[in-house]
Design brief:
467 residues, alpha/beta, Rossmann fold, GMP Synthetase, Chain A, domain 3, four-stranded mixed sheet, 12 helices, 20 strands, globular
């Protein structure tokens, strides 16, 4: 197979770098002016060149004039969404089916997909401006200005990425793009490992590779930290980069104690890769010059008070090819009232996002930890099911449920059960029963979010159903 080089536009990159650097010096002044100018250009492009937005938002002038939009609506109207009329769903899917990870599409775009946590998998087109923005944010804010030209790598570093590798997911595509773009001789030694591997296998591979930098999800980092604490893993990390899930205080304390290295945490999504970066005081700062994030209540109105919102509306100011204006995210957020002690004037946000329970089960040679994201990925990829709930009832019993209204629920449950059993077998667990249930999934009170992997034995979990 011939692979096209990942997209990179030097002019866009230089502009994004300079503007991102300048905005950090004066977030409210220069940063605010950049935000308003970018928003005006985005609105103009969407109304002029996107048939979907021209229909649904005719007469809009300000951002508030745009009704919130869902992933389902955008995917349904995919062929009318983009401002480049060559972009079609069939074309994008054909490219993904035949191309390598991070190959350019139509000579200038990058494609990646999202999971179906909200019920509908997404397919997102990244243009030169959005990729340049992500590079600049990663380099200048999350990693620090000494992180290298593309914000991730420096000569001779050994980097291990443990993530979902079964498809063109945002994290995998972004890592592969930067690796392939690194100048000859300056690329790091990069080892990619699947989060679906048993923890014991990951421990062996990481121990042999001895990375300087580990890039993974908080739940995976916490599981590896336990292995480090008990001596099965002996890494000497310079840095640990985390994203893709919510980092809990318990996980933070565990990984810091075990690895004793600098922790770099971020908040992002497939829709905008770098929404917020964590400062030295462990606070998330919104990249407010590149993205607008509105907390809203259950009816899509501006959330009042200082409680966590029901959801959030995201506006991507970097990407004018596939516009996102007031796009509905399920994450609950709130803005901090007081400025951060680190001195940064970028807004501080708190996020309650994607999270699930790590399941701990007895194996032939000791306890085996099952990562929530690994279980979710296995079911999504092998069964094609996204709206499910897997509940651990006992050391030998899992209960599998589907969201009400699922098409051909019996067949979907059967596929999901086979996927779970295959995953368990791959982890060395063969004595666990997976029971299919027609009971309704249990959503979190307040947010209504679906936690897809739940330890039902934990304090506060629902009472076990009768055997």
């Amino acid at each position: 197979m011939t692979h096209s080089a990942p997209p990179f536009d030097g002019c866009s990159w230089l502009r994004a770098w300079n503007e991102t650097w300048g905005a950090a010096l004066d977030p409210q002044g220069f940063g605010g002016r950049l935000r308003e100018a970018r928003l005006a250009r985005l609105i103009a492009a969407a109304l002029r060149d996107s048939p979907l937005y021209a229909r649904r938002s005719r007469g809009a002038v300000a951002l508030a004039d745009f009704a919130p939009v869902s992933k389902a609506e955008l995917m349904h109207g995919f062929d009318d969404w983009a401002t480049d009329r060559r972009i079609t769903l069939a074309g994008a899917q054909a490219h993904l089916a035949g191309a390598g990870i991070a190959d350019a599409w139509l000579g200038r775009y990058l494609l990646w997909t999202s999971s179906g946590t909200s019920g509908v998998p997404g397919l997102f087109v990244q243009d030169a401006a959005s990729l340049a923005a992500y590079d600049a944010i990663e380099a200048l804010r999350l990693r620090g200005s000494g992180a290298g030209v593309l914000g991730l790598w420096s000569v001779g570093r050994r980097c291990a990425y443990v993530g979902a590798l079964g498809g063109p997911y945002a994290g995998h595509v972004a890592i592969e793009r930067v690796r392939r773009l690194a100048p000859l001789g300056l690329a790091p030694r990069l080892e990619l490992m699947s989060v679906l591997e048993p923890i014991s296998g990951l421990v062996q591979r990481l121990q042999a590779f001895q990375p300087d930098v580990l890039i993974t999800y908080p739940s995976c980092a916490a599981a590896l930290a336990l292995e480090q604490a008990r001596g099965a893993l002996r890494l000497r990390l310079d840095e640990l980069w985390l994203g893709g899930e919510q980092l809990t205080p318990g996980q933070r304390g565990l990984v810091r104690s075990a690895f004793g290295c600098r922790l770099r945490n971020s908040y992002g999504a497939s829709e905008f890769y770098s929404i917020a970066f964590e400062c030295s005081h462990a606070q998330l700062h919104l990249n407010g010059d590149w993205v607008i994030l509105e907390p809203v209540d259950a009816r899509g109105r501006a959330a009042a008070g200082d409680a966590f919102s029901h959801g959030a509306l995201l506006t991507n100011l970097a990407n004018r090819t596939q516009p996102l204006l007031r796009y509905a995210l399920p994450d609950r957020i709130r803005y901090a009232a007081a400025p951060c002690a680190c001195g940064s004037a970028w807004p501080v946000i708190e996020v309650q996002g994607r999270c699930g329970d790590t399941l701990d089960l007895p194996g032939p040679e000791g306890r085996i930890r099952l990562l929530p994201l690994a279980l979710e990925t296995a079911i999504e990829e092998d069964a094609g099911v996204t709206q499910f709930q897997l509940l651990l009832r006992s050391d030998t019993r899992l209960e599998l449920r589907l969201e009400a209204g699922a098409a051909d629920a019996a067949a979907a449950l059967a596929r999901a059960r086979r996927a779970v059993l295959a995953f368990l077998a791959g982890q060395g667990l063969r004595g666990v029963h997976v029971v299919c249930s027609r009971a309704a999934v249990r959503r979190q009170s307040g947010s209504g979010k679906l936690r897809r992997v739940v330890d039902a034995r934990a304090p506060g979990a629902e009472a076990p159903v009768p055997a």
